[in-house]
Amino acid sequence: FQRLSNQADTTSFDLKHLQFVSLAQHGYLETNALRSSYLYQHTVGNKSLLALIFPAQKKGHFFAVDTVRTNQMPNLKNMYTTERNAALSRASEAEDVPGEDHNFEVRIETDLRQVFRQIQRLLSAHLDEKRGPGMLVIQASLDNVSLYEGIPTLSDLPCVRLSVGAHDEPFLALDWQRMASRDILRHYLRYPSLLSKALELSRYLHLPLGE
């Protein structure tokens, strides 16, 4: 590249220096080429539930936001085991489902901006660990502008946005934290399969994955 561009700086390039190659000549994001982390956000009225999960570390952070700081979150470790067993019974391959024995931390807040700041710190610390190339998979009801304004570190990560679909139930007055937590875990257990399909489509269309 340096010889072709006649530039000393090899950290940037012009589009004219890119050359099209087929997948037969060069693979694109082969299996396990990138680690992925998972961010989920869903808001209904004054209630929000967010989760940031690092599959490689089997560690998840859940944040519930409401007008009052009331913790009615379920035992996420037990719920995850139950939902994962159900997902395994439906999956064609065990590798399509995240690993077992995840640990979860729960925080209850009354301000969504405070949750964004906590997620910002977690992502920054994760980047500082320099665990190698990775991407962040996002499923969220907020648009990208709102997410990136609330969590500026997203601009430092390759992000892949997947559709949430219409599976989430409305937040009920009494049991919303448990129901929303179950929905998040189900989405998380499905995301490797959805990511794989998005990658297949990206290869077929010769378009980059993510944003």
Please provide a written account of the structure.
This protein has 211 residues and is α/β, with parallel strands linked by helices. The chain has one domain. Helices cover 35% and strands 20% of the residues. The protein has 5 helices and 6 strands. Strands 4-3-2-1-5-6 form a 6-stranded mixed beta sheet, with helices on both faces. The longest helix has 30 residues. It is globular. Belongs to the DNA polymerase type-B family. Its cofactor is [4Fe-4S] cluster. InterPro entries: DNA_pol_e_suA_C, POL2.
What's the helix and strand layout?
Blueprint: H1 2-5, E1 35-44, E2 47-54, E3 59-65, H2 76-90, E4 103-109, H3 112-128, E5 134-140, H4 144-150, E6 159-161, H5 176-205
Parallel strand pairs: 1-5, 3-4, 5-6
Antiparallel strand pairs: 1-2, 2-3
Helix pairs in contact: 2-5
List keywords for this structure.
211 residues, alpha/beta, 6 strands, disordered N terminus
- Give me the secondary-structure category: alpha/beta
**Shape field:** globular
Radius of gyration: 19 Å
Beta fraction of the residues?
Answer: 15-25%
Number of domains: 1
The first-to-last residue Cα distance is 25 Å
Q: Which regions are unreliable across 5 or more consecutive residues at pLDDT < 50?
A: 1-5
Biggest sheet: strands, sense, closure? 6 strands, mixed
Helix content: 25-40%
Mean pLDDT score: 83
Largest sheet, spatial ordering of strands: 4-3-2-1-5-6
Number of strands: 6
Q: Which quaternary structure do these chains form?
A: single chain
Tell me the series of helices and strands, N- to C-terminal. Answer: HEEEHEHEHEH
Helix tally equals 5
